[in-house]
Amino acid sequence: MLKILVASSKGGCGKSTVSTNLAAHFAQAGKNTAIVDADRQGSSFHWCQRRPENVPGVLGIEGARRGWAARLPADTQRVIVDTAAGIRAAEVGEYLDDVDALVVPVLPSVFDLEASTAFLAEVAELPRIKRGKVPVALVANRLKPWTSNSQEQLAAMKGLPFPVVAQLRDSLGYVVLSGLGKSIFDYGSENVRGHQEDWAPLLKWLKKAG
């Protein structure tokens, strides 16, 4: 069972987008997949409930920092834990005994980068992170690669203590599909294929982490 923690100290960075698209990818690959939603807004949990019958289902579990692992069905193969917005590094530490990898979305803006810098410095000092027991990947989210701002912020992210494993381009499609209980991995059209390819480095990294 591969268990992935998605966390960030900054609200609005796309945690639920990352969580739901990862879940849909695994479900489409035939894996029994669950999302543990620890955010009060319940965005990922409600997304699971909206999944239509013509796509593979994802089990939604309303979660908290403790006890969520015991609520997973025995045949679960992939778990994504979508943490609460504004989580602190110490709270991330409470999950680390139960997960295999940590994914942190970061938006390409000065404010988001400043908020993430302090958070990631504290995360780097957590015992299981520091000992290399739980690998950490950064995901540069909602990039506009054609703008100088995105390029500048992406260059600045190289100074963070963890690698930028994937770069996800900004697209209204993520918002539209989320409202339908779907993801870009539920389609095979040429229009979404490029965005699916954005995820390939992260999926490869997660495979190694598991």
**Strand arrangement across the biggest beta sheet:** 3-2-4-1-5-6-7
Which structural class best describes the helix and strand composition? alpha/beta
Report the biggest beta sheet as strand number plus sense, adding barrel if it closes: 7 strands, parallel
Tally of helical runs: 9
Range of strand content: 15-25%
Shape from CA axes? Answer: globular
- Write down how many β-strands occur, each being a DSSP E stretch of 2 or more residues: 7
Radius of gyration: 16 Å
Q: Give the low-confidence spans.
A: none
In sequence order, what are the helices and strands, one letter per element?
EHEHEEHEHHEHEHHH
Average pLDDT figure: 89
Instruction: Give the proportion of residues in helices.
Output: 25-40%
Could you give the distance between the termini? Answer: 8 Å
Give a description of the structure.
- This protein has helices spanning 15-28, 43-50, 89-93, 110-124, 127-130, 148-157, 172-179, 190-198, 200-209; strands at 2-6, 33-37, 59-62, 78-82, 101-106, 136-143, 164-169.
- The longest helix has 15 residues, at 110-124.
- α1 (15-28) packs parallel to α2 (43-50).
- The mean pLDDT is 89.
- The relative contact order is 0.19.
- α2 links the parallel β2 (33-37) and β3 (59-62).
- The protein is built from nine helices and seven strands; from the N terminus they run βαβαββαβααβαβααα.
- 40% of the residues lie in helices and 19% in strands.
- The chain is α/β, with parallel strands linked by helices.
- The protein has a seven-stranded parallel β-sheet with strand order 3-2-4-1-5-6-7, sandwiched between helices.
